[in-house]
């Protein structure tokens, strides 16, 4: 079962570092992992439309204005990909801070809007294998210089992360075509 410590130790292994037994242990590796873990996780979640992190839900109306609607930005959303009305096409939107309500809002001309977004996932047991690999490599890339002092290793980890993310995108695209009953040239060749 995947856990926070497993992901951290995967990142350390990529750097040739010994594993840790706890993130509360008193050493530099644990302190750095605690510092980098959540920001890197959220960044990797934002980079791809991971199926386990995707949500489609109606947005809560905050205020109707003359030419647009203001909706409450979903609390657990890291990245809104689309704003739409079911059975209609996606509509333009923008995110902004509403000073009157002191909250982040989504502004759109779409009435009764829904959003598709990537949510913040903190439970590691929900991560899929491709995400775990990409996340651990991104974590290794961000930790490389501070733990090893090796800029070349950091560049190597960044390249491995980029390749891992590209593979996750290809797999996700193929999986989505398979679920919809469609095929593309890539799928047919395989």
Give the total of beta strands: 7
Proportion in β-strands: 15-25%
Q: What is the CA–CA distance across the termini?
A: 30 Å
> Kindly state the mean pLDDT as a whole number?
90
**Helix fraction bin:** 40-55%
Number of helices: 5
Uncertain regions spanning at least 5 consecutive residues: 177-190
Order the strands across the largest sheet as they lie in space. Answer: 2-3-6-5
* Largest sheet: number of strands, sense, barrel closure: 4 strands, antiparallel
> Helix- and strand-based class?
alpha+beta
Shape: elongated
What is the succession of H and E elements? HHEEEEEEEHHH
Question: What Rg do the Cα atoms give?
Answer: 20 Å
Report what the structure shows:
With 190 residues, the chain is of the alpha+beta class. 45% of the residues lie in helices and 21% in strands. It is built from five helices and seven strands, in the order H-H-E-E-E-E-E-E-E-H-H-H. The protein has helices spanning 4-14, 28-46, 129-148, 151-180, 185-189; strands at 54-58, 61-64, 69-72, 77-84, 93-98, 103-108, 114-119. It has a four-stranded antiparallel β-sheet with strand order 2-3-6-5, with no helix packed on it. Strands 1-7-4 form a three-stranded antiparallel β-sheet, covered by helices on one side. Strand 5 and strand 6 form a beta hairpin. Helix 1 (4-14) packs across helix 3, helix 2 packs across helix 3 and helix 3 runs antiparallel to helix 4 (151-180). The radius of gyration is 20 Å and the shape is elongated. It starts with a helix and ends with a helix.
